[in-house]
Inverse folding.
């Protein structure tokens, strides 16, 4: 008997089975190693593919829409502070959101379509100084300062303001918001400002919003208007901000 056969004969059945299993496993390991791809730098990435970087896979930063506010002391923060003016509150509220706004507040105390305010400002001169070609929406708010001017003069001034907006920003949406009333019985002069502004807006195919018809502030003047009886309180500024925010986002061009 040969030495190998003699050795095999002395193996117990259990030991023989273990040896055969180990031999089979060794053969499988050799085959698997032969089939495996060669290692290379970066081979820990699946299939050797390159994963997108954070900048490539991340979402794009939303574009900012420029909105210009034309108006009087109801939009400057008069009675509170410039930081509490509703355009500033609106700017802060949309910053970092899905639809950020870049608010240009050109409003000046005492101004109107016809009446000159601080520094000789009118709504028309505010447009000249602030509206740009990239402007997406221009919101004109007011003005009770025009109360007492002739209806014809007022309508012509509103029409001229709209024309200038479109000349400077042809693609911008134009929104006119009339003067609000703090009582249920607005003066006839206030109604004339509202009516002439609405007529000019309709003729120019601009959007017109009527705070008198929608009863802004009416019945709530005690909480929304400050001690001077004319300008919004802090709560009033927040109230205007929420109303204007709905108007602006409802009319921004797509």
């Amino acid at each position: 008997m040969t030495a190998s056969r003699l050795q095999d004969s002395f193996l117990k059945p259990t030991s023989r089975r273990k040896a055969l299993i180990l031999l089979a496993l060794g053969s499988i390991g050799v085959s698997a190693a032969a089939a495996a791809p060669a290692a290379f730098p970066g081979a820990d990435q699946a299939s050797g593919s390159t994963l997108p970087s954070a900048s490539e896979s991340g979402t794009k930063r939303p574009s900012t829409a420029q909105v210009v506010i034309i108006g009087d002391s109801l939009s400057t923060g008069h009675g509170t502070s410039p930081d509490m003016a509703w355009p500033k509150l609106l700017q802060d509220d949309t910053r970092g959101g899905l639809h950020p706004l870049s608010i240009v507040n050109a409003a000046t105390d005492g101004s109107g379509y016809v009446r000159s305010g601080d520094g000789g400002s009118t709504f028309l001169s505010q447009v000249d100084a602030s509206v740009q070609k990239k402007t997406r929406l221009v919101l004109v708010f007011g003005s009770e300062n025009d109360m007492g001017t002739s209806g014809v003069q007022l309508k012509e001034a509103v029409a001229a303001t709209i024309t200038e907006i479109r000349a400077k920003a042809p693609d911008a949406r134009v929104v006119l918001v009339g003067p609000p009333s703090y009582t249920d019985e607005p003066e006839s002069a206030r109604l004339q400002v509202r009516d002439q502004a609405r007529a000019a807006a309709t003729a120019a195919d601009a959007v017109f919003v009527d705070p008198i018809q929608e009863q802004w502030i009416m019945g709530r003047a005690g909480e929304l208007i400050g001690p001077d009886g004319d300008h919004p309180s802090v709560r009033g500024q927040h109230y205007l901000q929420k109303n204007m925010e709905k108007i602006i986002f409802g009319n921004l061009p797509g």
